[in-house]
Amino acid sequence: MNSNSLSSSQRSEKLQVKGKLIVVEGIDGSGKSTQIRLLGKWLKSKLLPVFMTEWNSSEMVKEITSKGKKKGRLTPTTFSLLHATDFADRYERNIFPLMRAGYIVLADRYIYTAYARDIVRGCSPKWVCKVYDFAIKPDVVFYFRVPVDVAVERILVGRPKLKYYEAGMDLNLSNDQYDSYRIFQSRIIEQYESMVKSDGFIVIDGASGIEKQQQAVRNTIMKLLPGSS
Length: 229
Known about the structure:
There is one protein chain. The protein is α/β, with parallel strands linked by helices. It has a single domain, classed as P-loop containing nucleotide triphosphate hydrolases (Rossmann fold). It is 52% helix and 11% strand. The protein has a five-stranded parallel sheet, with helices on both faces.
């Protein structure tokens, strides 16, 4: 999935923003959420205006998505459109307005999550790309690369049961919930890996120490901060 080229409207929007958009991507258990929270605290300690946003967190859409998941009636297309609606709501209400105001927006997952998950669920890559073509390209995308077994082990610690869609049970990959989860996450990794070069991801070793990962993230971000040039 190559979303590297901006449309004319996106280029116009990019000229209007004063802030920065920093994104973390990776499978569940890759450590991305921990790293972006640490980055947020560090940036705030420098008295910089920071806003954090998470995937699938729009209050307007969350209840509808939750009900659909509980009933197990979401088709791949419906699932995709619900997440796109969630993203569009957060983008219009928070992400883009705050970037225009000069904020550093930290996104725990962005459009690349949709590309990876929706395509694995069978949606057309061109269609998914078109759905999100209004979204501005981030200044930096960190991809936390981690072996699937390491990520699965982290997720399953203290968790007695995986959720139906989380485990990819809707795809009939396996009758065993945990096997299905591993297969599902492995396929998502394949999609992420296909985007590394085309979308300019900065790869972070998600299996390395937390401090080492955070230092690598900060070294990149320091180049974007005011007065760094």
